[in-house]
């Protein structure tokens, strides 16, 4: 696989054509030929709110279910909410005027003892985050390590096990198991955004991502400002997704209703 040869260009596997007119895509259907330069990424917010992209994000959010956020809206109420408020929401996103709601704090037990704090965004914010993810993933994923298998499209724990077996067969016998304590709670926002800005030129997208990072954590009746860290509990690409985007849509499984997002 090629590496990044220009700080402003996202490169892709050898022998694959570059697409000069990329379309909005979902994380389940990332075309291997997709190539976006930083200059082209100046219009990413238009790709985020594109009806095809938003409908894919909507189906993903509904399929993932999940608990309500601070506004108590459930995923089953999302369609009705969007039918009424989507035009306004779309214009606010395009005008760089959207501000996320606070995140609802939730605490869950860890398997080996202790607790982990999660942040549960509102269903509307989960929809927007998923739409962002689907547009940003093709830009960033090609540069990730080939040995990284977690939370990436078309990658799974089974593939990681197969890779480990190959290492064992090759004669490697040592395994290093380590973890960074409270890593997500200590992510530096400035460093993270500087990395994102290397590949994203749309200032609206950059500011929206920072607003999500800084969204207050709602606990004890009050939102607590966030100066570092990322809340655990937002959208993630499912490993081993079917390329058709129908992973998990079994026989007899009802599809979410269509949304009036097309203009």
Automatic annotation (TrEMBL):
SUPFAM superfamilies: DNA/RNA polymerases. InterPro entries: DNA/RNA_pol_sf, GrpII_Intron_Splice-Mob/Def, RT_dom. Residues 1-23 have a biased composition (Polar residues). It comes from the Bacteria. Residues 223-240 have a biased composition (Low complexity). Residues 1-27, 220-263 are annotated as: Disordered. Residues 254-263 have a biased composition (Pro residues). Residues 108-235 form the Reverse transcriptase domain. Belongs to the bacterial reverse transcriptase family. This is Reverse transcriptase domain-containing protein. It comes from Halomonas hydrothermalis.
